[in-house]
Records
---
Amino acid sequence: NCYLDFFNTSYAEKLIKSLTGTPGSCTACGNNCIGCRVLYPNRFKDALAGIISFPSVLPHLIEEPSFMIPARIPSHDILIAIHVHEQLLIEMLSRCSKYGTKAVIIPIESPSWISPSAMATLTRISNEYRIEIAFPKPFCSFNPPSETLLGKFRREFHIGYPEIETILKDNKIHDCSVHVSAPCGSTYFICRWLRNIEITTESVRSLVSKFLHAYPCTADMQWDNELNDTILHHAVAIHQRAVENSLMKANFIPQKVAKKTSPSYNPVKDLSQAMDLIMNKLKTETHIEITLLRKQTRLSPSIINMAIIQLKQLGYIHIHKGIIFPFSQKDHPYNSIQ
C-alpha cells in the first residue's frame, strides 16, 4: 500500500486560459456577460514556451522522481509551477541550468500545496543557481521588486498583485479598469461590477468581498498558520486594498452617508439566493439532483454552479454523480452571504 497525493489542475487551466485570452474562459456573469476582457489586449499565447503536465494523482513518496521529468523541456526564462509534487519540483529546479531558467514562481492557493521544508530546499537550490524565486500566497499577492525579472514579468503579463484605475464622478465609480489582475481573472469581474456604483469606504470593502466570493475565488478556506488566517480571506483583503488605493489616487472623498445603487443584474444577490435555495432544500430533502435544481429556478446555470462550488468549498455539501448531499455542520451553521 502507498499513500496518494491529489493535485489541483483546475487552477493551472484557469491561469493558462487567462494568459492566452481563451474566449469563454470566464463564465462568472453567465448570460449577463459583456465580454469585459475583450477591452484588454493581454494575449500571451506566443510567449508560452511550453506546458508540462503531470498526473493529478501521485504517490506521496516517488521513488525515482527523475524518471517522471520529460526528456525535452523547452528553453524558458520563467517557470510557473502550480501545485506540482514537491519531489518533482526539486528535481526540475536542480536541472534548471539545462533549460535556461532565470526565475521561478510557485503559487500557493492552499496550505497543503507545498511544505516549509520543500520551500527551504527550493530556495537553497535557486540561490545556488542564482535564480529568482517567489512563493506568493495566494498568487494575487505576487508583487516582487520592480527592478527584478519577476517584477518585469508582473508588469508585462499584467498578473499578480492587482492594480486598478478608477474614474470618479460625484463619489460614484464612473469607470474602473484593470492594469494588473489576479492570475485567476477575478479582478476583471470585480471591476466590471463596481462600475456605476455610489460608494463609501465601507460599501467598497463589502462589495469587493462579495464579488470575490461570487466569482468565485479559488483560494482555500483552510486555516493557514503563516498568515494566521485563511488564504481566501487574505485574497479578499488584497483586492480591498487594491480598490481603496485606486480610489485614493482618484481623490475619493469619504462620505458619511452615500446611496448605493446596484446594476440591473446583481450577481451577489443571485449567488446568495442560489446558496439559500440549496441549503433550504437540504433541510427537508436528503439530496438534490443538480439537473432538476437548474430547472426549478429562474437563476442561471452559472449562478447555480457558483453556489454549488462555494458551498462545497465552505464544507456544507459534497457532490457525487451529479447529486448534492449535505454535510453535518452543527458547529458551523450556514448563514446567508447577504
---
Amino acid sequence: MSELFGFFPFDMGPTEAWALIYLMMAVPILLVTKALRDGVARSADASSTKAKPEVLAVTPEGYRIPAAAPVARHERLTVGYIPRIDELWPVAYLRGKNDAVEETLVSGALSAGWLVASPDGKAYQNLGGVHPGEPVMGRFFDALKGKQSPTPAEVRAAARSVAYGIEDAIKGDLASAGFVRPASVISTLKVIVLAGGAIALSLGVIRIVVRAELTQGDAPFPFVLFGAMVLVALTTFLMTRGLEESTRPKQYLAWLDDATSSLQSDVRGGRRTNPLEVCLGVAVGGVAMLAAMPAYAAMAAAFAPPPQMHTSSSSGGGSGDGGSSCSSSSCGGGGGCGGGGGCGGGGGCG
C-alpha cells in the first residue's frame, strides 16, 4: 500500500493531527456527495411534476360543422391545476395526514348544511336530506346516519373512521401521482451516498495502512483518526435517511397555498360559503378557514390538540396548572377542524 500511496499526506509520521487533515479531505467529499444526491433527487422529482396540458376537441371539425370549443386537459394533483372535488382528500392528506382529512370532511358537512349546530351551540343536528354524490362525503353521511343529535366527539369519530378507511386509497393515489419516490430512485440515491461515504472512509483506511507499513507496526493505534472515521460513517448513514420523501409535496402545497390565497381569505372571512370552495380552503389552509362559521365553534374542542401535561415543582400547584392549560381559550382556536369538504350534498360537492 505504501508503494501506491507513499506521498504526502499519507506518508506523514505518526501524529494525531492527521485526523484534522482527514476531515479536511472527507468533509468536501461528503458535501459534494450531498449536492449530487440532492441534484439527482430534484431531477427525479421534477420529472414527475411537469404538467402536460393538452387541448382536446370534443367533436370533429369539417364542412358546415363548427369546431368545438377546445377543452383544456386536467392534470390530476399537478402544479398549475386547481384540484377537483375528488382530489381534495389527497391534498388534505399531504397537508396533515388523517387529521386534515377529518377536518375537510366535517367542514364539508357544515358548509353543505346537512350538519348544523344545535340551538345551544354545544352539539349538532344531523338534518340528513339528499345523499351526497361525492363518494367520500357519502361515506361520512352514512357514518352519521341514525345520529340525530351527534356530539362534536361523535362527529369527529365518524370522520376519523372514514379518513382511516380511505387512507390506503389516498396513499396509492399519491404514489400514482408521483408524490412518493419509486424504489429505483431511492436505490440510486443510496448508491450515490454510500459511494461518497466509501471514498471518504477509504482515505482514513489508506492512511492507517500506510502508517503501519512505514512504522512497521510500532506506532500506537490512531484513536483520534478512528473517531473521525466513525463520525464520517455516521454522517453517511444519516445521509441515507429520509430518501423516500419526495420534494414534490412541499412544492405542490406551496403552489396551492399561493394559488388559493384569495379563496382562503374569502372563506376565512365568510364571503364564500359554497361547499366545494370551503372544502378546498380547508384542505389547503386548515380549519382556521372556518373561524367565521358559527357552526364550527362547537368542533373546536373536538379537534384541538391534546393538552400538554405540566408538572409543578411545588407540591401545591399541580392541579391549578392542569385545569388552565385545557381551558377553552387555549384549545379553541383552530379547533373547528371542520374542514373539509364542501363535498357534501349540494353546493358542488354533492
---
Amino acid sequence: MPQYYSDLLDTESFRLATISLDIDPHTEAQVLSVTLTTYGLSEGTEITYNALSYTWGSPRPSDAEADSGTVILLNGQAFEVQPNLYDALVELQASCPETPIWVDALCINQSDPIERCSQVSVMNQIYGKANRVVVWLGKPFPELEAGINAAERIGTESVPHTLRMIQDQFWGFNSDLSMMPDKYGMDPIDEEEALGLVTLFMSNWFARVWVIQEVSLTNDVVILCNGKFTRFDYVGYTAAFLHYSGFFQSTLDLVPKDRPGIYLRGDVYIFHAERIQLLREWCKGDKSQWNRTLETIDFEAGLGGKNEKSAEMVLLRFLFTLFGLQASDPRDVVYGLGGIMKHMAAKDGLLLPSEFEPDYDIEVRDLLRNVARKIIEETDSLVYINLVKCPSMRQTLGLPSWVPDFPEVIFNTLSSAQFRSIGTINSSKHVPHAPNQRPFNIDGNILNSFGIRLGTVKKIGETYLETLRGQRSMSGDILLSMDEVYPYTGQPADEVFWRTLIWDTDFTNRPARIIRHGDFQRAILEEIVHPLRVFHREAESPAAGEALVLEFLGRMSYLDDIAAKYPSSIFPSVNLVKSCLDFLPQEAVDLHDEEI
C-alpha cells in the first residue's frame, strides 16, 4: 500500500501542498503532481500560503456523482481525487502555481481518525493564518461566469442601499425589477444576469456548514473562475441586497425555465449566501463597514442582553443563523463550527466546553442532546427548542423530542436573526436567571416544564412548497371560516391572517402599521399566477396547457368568496388571475376598477 504521509500531525503542525506538472512514471503522460511539506502552526504567519474552500462532492445539483475519481501524483505516488477537486487543482496550477495551498483532502491523512480530529480542531488557525482563501464553485461555464460578473456589479453598487435598509429596520417589498433605477440608481437585472445569479446561488458550496469558518477568518477571500479572482464579498452583498430589497423572487421568476443545460430546483441558496456574509462581517469586527449596522440585528434570539457572554451563547448565535446548512456527517453541524467558535470565543476570553470539541466516536443523538442541554441550562431559556421542526423532518433515531437535529432544509423560526427593533416573542414572561415559580429542568432525556393549554389547532394551511405551486385553498378555507373582525385584537380578520402568513412579529408599533398593501397584493398574485404559467408552458401542447390551467382555475372559486367577504384582501379574484395569464385576453374578463 502506498505511503503518502511520512509523519503524524498533531495540533501543533500542518501540511501545505505545492502543485506542479510532472510525468507519470507508469503512463509517461503529463499529470498533476502535488508535493506536501510539513510546517509548525507557529510558523503560519511567516509563510505565504493559500487555503482552498470547495465541495468534496459534485459542485452542481445537476452533476451526477462520479463513481471514481481522477488520478494525480501525491508525493510521487498515484493518488485518486474526486473530479471537483481535480478541476480545482488544474485551475490552481495554471493561476497561482508558485503559492503553496492547504487542501483538506490532501493535507490531512483522512484515513487516520486521530490526525483528522486534531487537524479539524485547528482549522480556524489554518484558515485564519492563510494569506488568501480561494473559493472553488466548480468548473467554469458561461452561466456561472455571468453570475459572478453580475454579483460583482450588484455587490459593488448595492452596499449603501442594503446598509440603509438594515439601519432603517425596514424591508423593501419590491417585486418589479424595472424599479431598480428609480429606487436604487442601479440598472435592472436582465434575463442573462438573472440566469447567471440563479446558477451561481445553486452552487452546492453555499449549503456546506464548513464554509463558514473557511471564509470568515481571513480578510482576503476570492472566487476563482476561469483564471479570474473575484472578491467573495460581492456575492454575499448581492444576496443580502436581493433579500432586503425583495427582488430575489423577481430574479428567480425572470429565469427562462427551458434553458438547455441549466437545471433549476427549489434550493437556490440566496439566503445561505446572505447569512454566510453576515457572519463573515461579524467576524471582521471593527474592520467591517457593516460593524455598526450589524448591531441592529438580533442574532441571539433576544437573549443577548439577558445572559453573560459564554461559549454557549456563541454557539446559539451560529445555530440560529445557520439552520439549513448541510454536512455529510450530522455531527459536523456542531464540529463544523468549532474552529470559528474558538476564534470568536477567544476574543472574549472564553473557552469551549468539552461537548463542543470534535469527537467522532460519540453517537449523533448524544452529541445533539448534550449541546441542547448545555445551551438551555446556560441561557436559562427554552428559546433553543424553537429550532425543533416537524417530526417528518427528523432523521436522528432516539433523539429526545425537545432536541433539534437540524434537517438540511431552510425554514423560518420566530427566533431567527431579525431587526432588534422588532423585539422578541416571550408569551411566558419568563426572565432568564431570575427567580421562577415554575422552573424547568432536564433529567437525562426528559425536559420537565410547565405549560398552559391555549386551545386546539382546527385548521392548517399549505406547506411552503405547496404555496410555490400556487395552492392556496387550505389558507382560503381558514380565512373564510373566521369572523370578519378578530375578537382578540379588534383587527379585520384578513389583516390578522396576512400578518400571520408573513410571520409578522414586529413589536415596534402597536397597533401595527399597515405595510404597502398594493405591493403585497401583487406579490401574492404573482405567486398564484407564476405556477399556472409554468403548467401551461410545460404541457404537451398549447391546448393541453390551456385545459390544465382552466381546470386549475375551476378549483379557485374560494378566491371569489374571499374577495366578496374581504374586498381589500391580499388574495386576487379569479378574474384578476385570468387577466394575468397570457393565453386569456384581458378583454375577455371583467375587472373592478381597483383590480385594474
